[in-house]
Amino acid sequence: MEKVWLLVAVAASVLARAAAVELTFELPDNAKECFYEEIEKGTECTLEYQVVTGGHYDVDVLVEGPARQILYREIKQQYGQFQFTPDHTGTYQVCFSNEFSTFSHKLIYVDFQVGDEPQLPGVGEHFTAMTQMESSSQKVHENLNSIIDYQTHHRLQEAQSRKRAEDLNERVLFWAVGETLGILVIAVGQVMILKNFFADKKSNQAAY
Amino acid sequence: MVTGNYKLQLFDPRTGGFMPSSPGLGMHVEIRDPDDKIILSRVYSSEGRFTFTSHTPGEHVICLYSNSTKWFSGSQLRVHFDIQVGEHAIDYANVAQKEKLTELQLRVRQLLDQVDQIAKEQNYQRYREERFRQTSDSTNQRVLWWSISQIGILVGMGFWQMRHLKSFFEAKKLV
């Protein structure tokens, strides 16, 4: 199976208008990945990103409009949030760059929300006021949404901490084994070199 | 439950845009679970949709490879991709139609699904915390063992060095 390198990267959503994409992707070292989205003017968009694992936990972010104007640009950020309402309809691009890093690939979480959350079918079609039941269930829904949002952040933070702890665990083992070997080599080496000094003197004396 | 759908479009150099649909293009979708076992490995056409349900908590890897022939290589490919996880993956219009629910019933169903997702996430966090705690305990133990054995090795090597050198100098009649 041939693997063709995709020169143009991913467009975020197939659906028009209201859409949200939430994913975690791997950004290799020295690479730049872009996501494109066709947005109509007037729809409020929110971009949220966080570096989960890798290197110094930083990434360059660039958001450009259809006329290549820079809407948002951050260098070496760990996490951030950017809200904007586009003035023009067109293809907007969000680029994450890891070009400053030589050997650490990064895992980045992106949440790109375009427009409002799509309503349940049937809701919002009536023009009468909502009953108390409906409005309180709407409130419960919004609260649950924010709980899920907090849980997502907690999950990302936990993944970051756990990765660091696992790295530390591995490094402690390597360090312990390496240092033990180093001490053994140095101890034996010192003795051998000392013996060498005295042995040379003896043979020099014998030669004269 | 995770649902992903994608659409491939090939760049058409004649018109300068993207062809609306390109037959012959395919996408190989491969999904691996946290134990590196392949859950799904299938070739779809240029437009497709895949769904899977995870059975193990942890990091799943979703890879999309294009299996176009060499003739297409070097041109640009536009990939539309949409992925929905958990309660976002449920299509409520479908549910309402199949089970004939009223608006309020549908809303309650949505709330139930959300609460279900929250409970699953909390369960996942409990499992994660246990792994984290095990890793930290292991690190703690390793540091303890290492420091004790370090002291032992240093003292041992010191003794060996002194003894070895003493016997060496005695042999050389310097002491």
UniProtKB/TrEMBL annotation, chain A:
InterPro entries attached to this UniProt entry: Emp24-like (IPR015720), GOLD_dom (IPR009038), GOLD_dom_sf (IPR036598)
Which Pfam families has this protein been placed in? EMP24_GP25L
Q: Tell where it localizes.
A: Endomembrane system; Membrane
Q: Where is the signal peptide?
A: 1-20
- Look up the domain of life of the source: Eukaryota
Q: How does it sit in the membrane?
A: Single-pass membrane protein; Single-pass type I membrane protein
Asked whether the keyword Membrane is assigned, the reply is: yes
Q: Which residues cross the membrane?
A: 172-194
Residue stretches making up the GOLD domain: 32-114
| GO CC term (a single one) | endomembrane system
Cited SUPFAM superfamilies: Supernatant protein factor (SPF), C-terminal domain
- Record's keyword terms, sorted: Developmental protein, Membrane, Signal, Transmembrane, Transmembrane helix
UniProt record similarity statement? Belongs to the EMP24/GP25L family.
Q: What is this protein called?
A: Transmembrane emp24 domain-containing protein 7
Q: Which organism is it from?
A: Penaeus vannamei (Whiteleg shrimp)
From TrEMBL, chain B:
Recorded hits in Pfam families, A to Z, give:
EMP24_GP25L (PF01105)
InterPro entries in the record: Emp24-like, GOLD_dom
| Main localisation | membrane
Q: Name one GO cellular component term.
A: membrane
Record localization:
Membrane
* PROSITE patterns assigned to the protein according to its UniProt record, in alphabetical order: GOLD
> What SMART domains does its record include?
EMP24_GP25L
Q: Where are the transmembrane segments?
A: 143-160
Bilayer topology reads: Single-pass type I membrane protein
Which residue range or ranges hold the GOLD domain? Answer: 1-85
* Keyword NADP in record: no
Sorted keywords for this record are: Coiled coil, Developmental protein, Membrane, Signal, Transmembrane, Transmembrane helix
Q: Which chain positions lie within coiled-coil regions? A: 94-121
What family, per the record? Belongs to the EMP24/GP25L family.
What protein does this entry describe?
Answer: Transmembrane emp24 domain-containing protein 9
Q: Which organism is it from?
A: Penaeus vannamei (Whiteleg shrimp)
